[in-house]
Amino acid sequence: MWKWLKSSKTSPVSPEPVNTPEPANTPGEAGGEAKQQVIIITGTSGSGRKDIAKRLSSGLGVPYVLPYTTRAPRPGEQDGEHYHFITDAEFRALQEKDELCESVRLERGSYGISKHELDRALQQHQAAIVVVNHEGVQTFRKLYGENAVRIFLYVTKEDIRLRLEREGAPSEVLEEYLRNYSDQVIYKRESDFLLQNIETAATLEKIKLFLQERI
Ligand SMILES: Nc1ncnc2c1ncn2[C@@H]1O[C@H](COP(=O)(O)OP(=O)(O)OP(=O)(O)O)[C@@H](O)[C@H]1O
Ligand SMILES: Nc1nc2c(ncn2[C@@H]2O[C@H](COP(=O)(O)O)[C@@H](O)[C@H]2O)c(=O)[nH]1
């Protein structure tokens, strides 16, 4: 278990597209002796969760399981890189075929994570990284108990403003993030590891150390 952490020279792994749906493993059960862990990156919107998830994935060789969403791509967002962008009908089909291990409906659209992609990551790497909101955290905790490790990232409202303005994000996105900030940051106590994402390299190092200490 956690061999990938101790020898983090593995090559980056990216989630593959689903071609043939297969039944997911019973959550939390490990095939054989290896314990399977879901590393959840959560926190306040715009705190750099996706950025950290991708870098952690590359650094550790643990797949980042990309969610499916029906929301429209923002400027600069790419299908297969930021999300799997799909239509409402495609999302409903995934739900009807019970292919999502968790899903949420938010103002802008629906979001969900494929059972098959998560299961494949867990079987092949004994671990997977996901980025979800608080509802997603609760679902993963129900499914995987303490094997769903909650890492909560936050930044100040001022940092969110600076980062999003620098990226040229639409003003309604920035306004929404700032409006939702107080509702999101209250969940910081419901986490296993809490940190302010000020500097990316330092954040990554702290997360890696934290994960090692859980062995
Ligand atoms: N440590 C950092 N320092 C400065 N800017 C950062 C840092 N981490 C991420 N950013 C920038 O902040 C913005 C938000 O990052 P990212 O999309 O990873 O956050 P997120 O929490 O996943 O956001 P969202 O809620 O939109 O999913 C991006 O413009 C990103 O380039
Ligand atoms: N429970 C889930 N939450 C998800 C999933 N994919 C993304 N998210 C979270 O939703 C909000 C909105 O994201 P945005 O990119 O539209 O700003 C944010 O908190 C995401 O982390 C998912 O599959 N399940």
From TrEMBL:
<dbReference type="InterPro" id="IPR008145">
    <property type="entry name" value="GK/Ca_channel_bsu"/>
</dbReference>
<protein>
    <submittedName>
        <fullName>Guanylate kinase</fullName>
    </submittedName>
</protein>
<keyword id="KW-0808">Transferase</keyword>
<dbReference type="InterPro" id="IPR020590">
    <property type="entry name" value="Guanylate_kinase_CS"/>
</dbReference>
<dbReference type="InterPro" id="IPR027417">
    <property type="entry name" value="P-loop_NTPase"/>
</dbReference>
<comment type="similarity">
    <text>Belongs to the guanylate kinase family.</text>
</comment>
<keyword id="KW-0418">Kinase</keyword>
<dbReference type="GO" id="GO:0004385">
    <property type="term" value="F:GMP kinase activity"/>
</dbReference>
<feature type="region of interest" description="Disordered">
    <location>
        <begin position="1"/>
        <end position="35"/>
    </location>
</feature>
<feature type="domain" description="Guanylate kinase-like">
    <location>
        <begin position="36"/>
        <end position="212"/>
    </location>
</feature>
<dbReference type="GO" id="GO:0005829">
    <property type="term" value="C:cytosol"/>
</dbReference>
<dbReference type="Pfam" id="PF00625">
    <property type="entry name" value="Guanylate_kin"/>
</dbReference>
<dbReference type="InterPro" id="IPR008144">
    <property type="entry name" value="Guanylate_kin-like_dom"/>
</dbReference>
<comment type="function">
    <text>Essential for recycling GMP and indirectly, cGMP.</text>
</comment>
